[in-house]
Amino acid sequence: MQAAHQLFDSTPQDSWTTQFLQKDGHHLLIAEIDGRPAGFVTGVEVAHPDKALEMMLYELGVDEDYRRRGVGRALVRGLVAVAREAGCVGMWVPVEAGNDTAVAFYRACGADEPEPAATLWWDLA
Known about the structure:
The chain is α+β, with helices and mostly antiparallel strands. The chain has one domain: Aminopeptidase (3-Layer(aba) Sandwich). It has helices spanning 14-22, 71-86, 100-108; strands spanning 26-33, 36-48, 51-62, 90-92. A 4-stranded mixed β-sheet has the order 1-2-3-4. A hairpin with a 2-residue loop joins strand 2 (36-48) and strand 3. It is globular. The two termini are 25 Å apart.
């Protein structure tokens, strides 16, 4: 994780990394090119009493030097494989409103765009 710190929004904290990785249904894939971290994807299995198991693509990051070289697409495919192996019936990703680049990327990776949705946030800090 420390070798891949530049891929994340901020430096991963050891305790948070451990907490994430120790939870069942939490997944982290890191792509390397020539021994150098090139990108990552995280996913979280989501279960609900009236829905089958789904995978939420939580975050995707690709180093600028490796963008437009298939790294992000390979990571998404990797998470799809993990989701299938876990028995998920689908995978979804939240995308910020107006982020047309992300929407186009995920559509190119095979995602369909469902009904428009809003994400609301509680700051519990």
